Each structure stands twice: as C-alpha cells, then as structure tokens.
Amino acid sequence: MVDEALEEKLASLVGAPVGRDGPSVAPDPVNLPMIRHWAAAFGDDNPVYTDPVAAAGSRFGQLVAPPLMLQTWTMPTPDLVGIAERGGSPVAVDGETALATLDRAGYVATLATNSEFEILRYLHLGEVVSATTVFESISEEKKTRLGRGRFITWVTTYTVESGEVVGRQTFRILKFDPSGTGE
Amino acid sequence: MTTVDAIAVGDQLPALQIDMTATLIAAGAIATRDFMPVHHDRDYANAQGAPDIFANILSDTGYCSRFLTDWAGPDARLRHLAIRLGVPVFPGDRLVYTGSVTSVEVSGGERLVEVEFRAATAAGDHVTGTARLDLPVTV
C-alpha cells in the first residue's frame, strides 16, 4: 500500500536543505588545540597536524588539520542540559524536520550505513568552515533484515570564507520500523 | 612509514590494532564534538537497547585516517574515503584494521594510490571501505 501523501512529502525533500537556518558555520576557526585533542584521541602522531617544524618541512609547508576533522569543525556547541531528553540532539530543533516525518510514518529507528568523504584540500589554522547539507535521495520503502525502511542520503558541502569548496561528505542512513512488521 | 616509490599493487598495510575501552570511545566522541549520550553514557545506551556505549562514526573515520597515514607517511594526502558500517564496537572489543593496495598510478608528479581496507572485531566487520591518497613522487 502506497501512502501518496507521504510519497509526495518525501519527494519534495530531495534537493532541499536539511537544516532550516542556512549553512552551519563552525563556532571556532581551525585551531591547534582542537587538532591536538583529536590527534590524541586516536593516537595519531602524524607530525603535519601538530609539529610546526615538521609541517614546514613537509609538502604542506605549514600545519594542516586532519582531513577527516572536516565534519568536526561545524558541529554545533552543544546545549548539554536535556540532551538525553532530546534523543541526543546537541541543540534544540525548532519546528518540523524531515526525519520527524519519517518517524511518524513508523520508521522510528535509525542505522547509519555509509559515510564518504571527498577532500579537495587540507585546511590551515585560522580558516572558518561552513557546511551546507541537502537531501540527495530518499529511497522507496525496502524490506530489510531489520524491518521495512528507507535509505536516506544527504550530501554536505564544506566551504571556507572565500566560498571555496574544500570537501564534500555523503552520508546514508536507514530509517526503519523496528516493530518486526516488515514481513 | 613506507618508501613511496616502492608502493605496489597487492602491498599489505601494517595492521592497526585498537583494544577499545570506554575511555577511548568517550574520548573519540568528545574530540569529534559528538555529544550523543550513546557514546559516553552506558545507562542511556542500555535504555536504547545497546549492551554498552559504542564508538561514533566520526571516530571510525579518525582511526581510518590514522591507519592510512601511519603507513603512507606525513606527505600523504587523503583525497577520498568511503566506508560502509557494520557491527558496532563496544568497550572490550579488539578492533583490527587491515588493508591492501589495489591501484597505483603516477600522474602529474603525484602518485595516486588506492587502498581497500576493513576493520573487524570478533563479531565481524565493523567498517569496510576504500581510500585514495596521493603522495609526491620523489626525485
């Protein structure tokens, strides 16, 4: 059975921005303290991230941010009080979200399935990153081993102040109905 | 670190073994600015049906990056990474990254190298993926 209204609503989301308030701008410019914290968390001792002398002698010529920190720069400063009650959302979300539409259609559970990064260039200290995310696709309903669900793909484009695109990320989740009625 | 000019198709990357702990999971989540409680609060994770806190995806890409450049060296530049996510990683799991070179191509003073890799626990593949790096061709 196809819910025409739902199909229409989902189709209208493709190409639309995921956030309601425009691009997410990094709260802080690319900076060495956050890079050092990140490198320590993963035991990454690549000197081009934290050693200015070694970095100056590398092909990069200066310190660079770990390329996969791209997403970290634009993560919002969290409002930690009430984060559990908000289902883990770091900040309160106003109004209707696309994922809420899917929740109401019974696809209440979420499983991340794929993440892909294209890095156009490495970032330098002081640069301010912005992220713009749009829905790339929302699949038709699939029967999965977890239950009926839809694959949601969004693409984030990362830019610096000049507008130069420095990277892109494609992220896919499965929103599914965990009630076992997928049979 | 490897000798760039010696990289060839079929080369195995040195394995990276991570004996995961609650500390590493929480540290990775916070260093990537991911404050979702499932990555630092076991009670919350239990209430969500998970047996314990589990590693966040930004930590996966962090470890992938380390695994690749530990091998390729500081002059390597990561151009592309694609991962598929499998079983979660919990405290107490041993996560082992392994990979091999699938393509080497010299173009415009750069050596483009493609790698396929996986990170597995005793429960199965946690991450499988591919990456593309470029390295300067040494003179």
Structural features, described:
The complex is a heterodimer of chains A (183) and B (139). With 183 residues, chain A is of the alpha+beta class. Chain A has a domain at 4-27 and 97-176: Hotdog Thioesterase (Thiol Ester Dehydrase, Chain A, Roll). Chain A is built from six helices and six strands. In chain A, strands 1, 2, 3, 4, 5 and 6 form a six-stranded antiparallel beta sheet that branches. The longest helix of chain A is centred in the first third of the chain and has 10 residues, at 4-13. The mean pLDDT of chain A is 90. By secondary structure, chain B is an alpha+beta fold. Chain B has a single domain (4-136), classed as Hotdog Thioesterase (Thiol Ester Dehydrase, Chain A, Roll). Chain B has three helices and five strands. A five-stranded antiparallel beta sheet of chain B has the order 1-3-4-5-2, covered by helices on one side. The A-B interface holds A 34, 37-38, 40-44, 46-48, 54, 58-59, 66-69, 71-72, 75, 78, 80, 83-84, 88, 90, 112-119, 122 and B 24, 27-28, 30-38, 41, 44, 57-66, 69-70, 74-75, 77-85, 136. Strand 2 (109-119) of chain A pairs antiparallel with strand 2 (77-85) of chain B.
